[in-house]
Predict the structure.
Amino acid sequence: MSDPLQMTCPDGETIAYYARPVHGDSLKKMGVVWLGGLKSDMTGTKAVALDAWAAQNDRPFVRFDYFGHGQSSGDFVDGTISRWAEDAQFVLDRIAQGPQILVGSSMGGWAAILTALARPDQVKGLVFVAPAPDFTEDLMWANFSAETKALIERGEIYEQPSMYDDNPYLISPQLIQDGRQNLVLRADIPIHCPVRILHGMEDADVPWDRSLKLIEVLQSEDVTATFVKGADHRMSDEPNIARLLGLVSDLCAQLDG
């Protein structure tokens, strides 16, 4: 794989990305942008599978690493939901120009919602894999012990063990505080584009009923969900990759032209 391209943000930080060239008839097709999850990067199984699908179908496609993730600059511990959503919006403004479908995995689902709200004329469709809006408050803070909450309230970093990495997640006070400024499940979400959701029913990180709550508050009338019995949070096995590609492909067909 070639080295990714680098885009410089207004504050001097850089975002690493891959963008599939757009030319000829592909200019008329809906673009697709991948928004990964917390501490994941653009070389993950789902992102690479979508890139290969886009290549086979001559489809514009962009995948990128947020600030503090993968090959982008910055330290993860300094990141926030606002920053990562702004990264996605900057990618839309500078790289993935024109109408787009956002595919958001886990935390990427939250970033995709914030991006769709910020760029309603550009975001024409959303596909979520185990979406995790409001996770800092409802899945982290709500489950932290009194000792952990006190640690964070003192301004210290909490090292949360990870099932997916030998290193812990470094949870900063600013991540929790900023998350509270971006909660979206407390009221109706004024998003009206088509939305597709894929969620495993054995997801130990983001319970599948979180997607039911998201469906409740989305104002769009075109929302469908696929719940997969026995599937966990990652959904990176072959059958679930096929499900994801099917959802994205069908939504592209619906929105093209």
